[in-house]
């Protein structure tokens, strides 16, 4: 607003400056003999002065407009830089989260080629040893070139080359349904190398997104925990059998005071038909 008022004031001043010589010329009445010569000279001077003043006024107004636009451009540039910094931070966090564990993301946008982000050798390491050795020999014969990544992508999307046949069919069917209808899924699969994979598909922003994550270590930990639990159960069962063989009543109470365990002698002492009834 301030720049606009200044531009209007300058335009008014320019009009007054240009009109002043003309008014002075009209007031000063020269003699009849000198009037033709002086009139021509003053006309040229007034025209030249008007042109110069007009150019100065135009340059001033243009400078003021430029300054105003520059302030707006600077404000927009600062906002874009802040947004870019925020997006870069979000991208870095997403990359860190993606590479924190072994996984790969496949995104389809329409009927075009999918974009693959993550571990490029994900499917290669999940194949059995014979197929991996054959692929290595083929790569040595062809040489390493830019087609290596494309080959890895083809292997990844050819689920039958690294998944068990039944699991590959299930995943193919689920991915086709996801791309056609947007129906999400989540399933646990097993690779030809005996490793476990979690597959999750969902529609995000008009795209079909498939996430493949190796869960072999988690599955191994779960199996170890199950073995530990089974061993603890067997130990408790042996201890319960040993305590049942004792003639003295034995019992155990939980922290809230309720009976948690009694032996056969305790059940007989309280005239209960069984240990479970005594509890």
Structure, described:
The chain has 279 residues and is α+β, with helices and mostly antiparallel strands. It has three domains: 2-94; 102-214, Beta-Lactamase (2-Layer Sandwich); 220-278, no CATH class. Helices cover 63% and strands 14% of the residues. It is built from nine helices and seven strands, in the order ααββααααβββαββαα. It has helices at residues 2-27, 35-98, 122-125, 129-142, 147-157, 165-181, 216-244, 264-269, 275-278, and strands at residues 103-108, 115-118, 185-190, 196-204, 207-214, 251-253, 259-262. The strands form two sheets. It has a five-stranded antiparallel sheet with strand order 2-1-5-4-3, sandwiched between helices. A two-stranded antiparallel sheet has the order 6-7. The longest helix is centred in the N-terminal third of the chain and has 64 residues, at 35-98. The two termini are 88 Å apart. Residues 24-31 and 135-149 have low confidence and may be disordered.
Please give the structural blueprint.
Blueprint: H1 2-27, H2 35-98, E1 103-108, E2 115-118, H3 122-125, H4 129-142, H5 147-157, H6 165-181, E3 185-190, E4 196-204, E5 207-214, H7 216-244, E6 251-253, E7 259-262, H8 264-269, H9 275-278
Antiparallel strand pairs: 1-2, 1-5, 3-4, 4-5, 6-7
Comma- or semicolon-separated keywords:
single chain, alpha+beta, 7 strands, Beta-Lactamase, 279 residues
**How much beta, percentage-wise?**
5-15%
- Helicity range: 55-70%
Overall geometry: elongated
Name the structural class.
alpha+beta
Protein name: Putative histidine kinase, putative HK, ATPase and sensor domain
Keywords: Kinase, Membrane, Transferase, Transmembrane, Transmembrane helix
GO molecular function: kinase activity
Transmembrane segments: 44-67
